Amino acid sequence: RLKNLLRVIKKKNRRIDLCLNVICMIDAIENASIEKIAENLLNVLEEVTAKKHPIIDEIKKIMIECGALNAVMSGSGPTVFGIFKTTKDAYKAKGRLKKLIRFAEVSKTKV
Question: Which positions ≥6 away from 27 have C-beta within 8 Å?
């Protein structure tokens, strides 16, 4: 129901889109849906920062290729994180990322 409502009220206005993203994220967290949480990851600074530092997109691409549900830059950088369903996929990404960057780590958490 919420998803249908959001489709109806969604406008091109960026502020409204961001507010809707927050509503969707709250719903995803309340329902403990890792897929929906990953789907609603957003960082408005990422687009600008990634233009200046293309490695951000490279890191995200590797994470997604290794099975991340999504990957996003944290804050204003320099951290990029991914959400994985399996520890195996996360460690696969870590192995590939270690060839590209100095530091990659896996942390496990619960929703």
Answer: 2, 36
